[in-house]
Known about the structure:
By secondary structure, the chain is an alpha/beta fold. The chain contains five helices and 15 strands.
Amino acid sequence: MNDQADNLGLLAQIKEDHHAHRRDWTRPGFRAVAVYRFGVWRMGIKSKLVRAPFSLLYRFLHRRVRNGYGIELPYSAQLGRRVVIEHQSGIVIHGNAVIGDDCVIRQGVTLGIRREDQPDQAPVLGKGVSVGAGAVVLGGVHVGDGANIGANAVVLKDVPAGATAVGIPAKIITPHETPAEAVRPSEEVSA
């Protein structure tokens, strides 16, 4: 997934991310992604001695984004192209998470582990996934291309491509169903 982004080069990636973030360099999401891209780029420097000052700068910038904007996006995660972090605050992305091209992550989202004894099992988002505000995706869950995760959903199972997941725990809804119908059991009217 990162291969295409790596082939672009750091400045080309940041330029593409800038366009994806509506050409606004002041947006916290753009800044978080730019710092992430820099962190990945500096790991390509083979000599530890040459890489050291870049690593110090990355750590400073990463902490500033994390503490100032509330966006935890470590360089060890795999981020596709044109990923948009729509808003700031309360965003936690596990270092083993994989996020495909053209995904949108909103405020309060957690992509993390489900169990402490399985620290490497992090979510994988396909291409074009939209994650609603406050959503939580936990464990080795795979979210298919073009899927939608509703606001405040808690996703513990795989989500098929193009599907919508809503509720706690998340349930898959069909296109003709409303989120309320999927989450609440149908009520029968007694005569």
